[in-house]
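Here is one such protein, fold included:

. . .
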Amino acid sequence: MSGHSKWANIKRKKGAADAQKGKIFTKLGREIQVAVREGGGPDPASNSKLKDIISKAKAANMPNDNIQRSIKKAMGEGSAENIEEIVYEGYGPGGIAVIVEVMTDNRNRTASDVRHIFDKNGGNLGSSGCVSFMFDKKGLLIVANDGSRDEEEVMMDALDSGAEDFTSTEETFEIMTAPTDFSAVRDALEEKGYVFETAELSMIPQNYSKLEDEAQIAQMEKMLDMLDDNDDVMEVYHNWETDDE
């Protein structure tokens, strides 16, 4: 079941994350706080949103002490932030569809920052829903293809656990689930000893677009860098298909 890599869409983002662990942990801490406050309390057994974020944090190698500190902060131990979740949609250079998920304590500041990043790099911020119809929300589980398990074994384990799609590359096994099945599939595979490089709900593009113009490619790279560097930006999804390295 080899095919186009869904991982290619976020490979670059993961590389940036690896280089900025401290910043990533700060952003994950915000997600944990919001999950505790809005998802149903500090117990992941009864708060599925929190359970999913903790799984995502562990896949990013976030220390358990950091996770627990964020949970306590959400429960009022220490300073608490009034954080809201906002999703921006728009187009990058060449019409590339872009979704930006943020968590912010200042809506006006963040909206201005995101709009500036789009405008500065040949894009334009659109209205809610202008590109999200081009994406499907999916559970995404990434396992390193390091030779410890063969492709058929991983594929059968994934499908038996309830996954809906499986893709293999030279570097990874990529397991896709329906959003409602994500937690169950992840838990079933963890019980079989799988360790994930990525374990999260993600927006997967239905179709990908390439950029041929070198100036537009440079603009798109710069836009993604600026969005990644913004403290309020949590996730960036796009349908730009880059050439494999």
Notes: The chain has a mean pLDDT of 87. The first strand starts at residue 84 and ends at 91.
